[in-house]
Design brief:
The protein has helices at 3-10, 14-25, 47-58, 63-70, 80-84. It is an all-alpha fold and 98 residues long.
C-alpha cells in the first residue's frame, strides 16, 4: 500500500509514514510490544498449594469449588478443617483398573 494512501487512511502526513517505516526497518520503533511485564504463561502449582488442590479434587469437588476455596471465597467445609479430615488425604485418585 502506498505511503500516501496509508497517511490518508490513518490521518498521518506522508512524511510521518515514511519516517515510521524507516524507524521500523532500523529497529528503532516497535509497533506491537507486549504490554505485560513479567511471566507470559501460567504458573505451576507447587508444594502445599498442589497438595491442597489434589486433596480437594480427590474429595470430588469441582474446579469452580476448588478455585473459590483457594481464593478464600469457598463455602464452609472446603477450608483447613476439610483438609484435616482423615478421609481427605492429599493423594491423587486411584487410576481405574484397565
Amino acid at each position: 500500500m502506498p505511503a500516501a494512501e496509508v497517511a490518508d487512511r490513518f490521518g498521518y502526513s506522508t512524511a510521518s509514514v515514511h519516517q515510521m517505516a524507516t524507524l521500523l526497518r532500523t529497529g528503532k520503533l516497535s509497533l506491537f510490544t507486549d504490554p505485560r511485564p513479567g511471566p507470559k504463561g501460567p504458573r505451576k502449582a507447587a508444594g502445599e498449594l498442589r497438595a491442597r488442590v489434589l486433596a480437594l479434587r480427590a474429595a470430588g469437588h469441582s474446579v469452580t469449588e476448588i478455585a473459590a476455596a483457594l481464593t478464600g471465597q469457598g463455602p464452609a467445609g472446603l477450608g483447613a478443617d476439610h483438609l484435616a479430615d482423615p478421609g481427605c488425604r492429599g493423594d491423587p485418585p486411584a487410576a481405574p483398573p484397565g
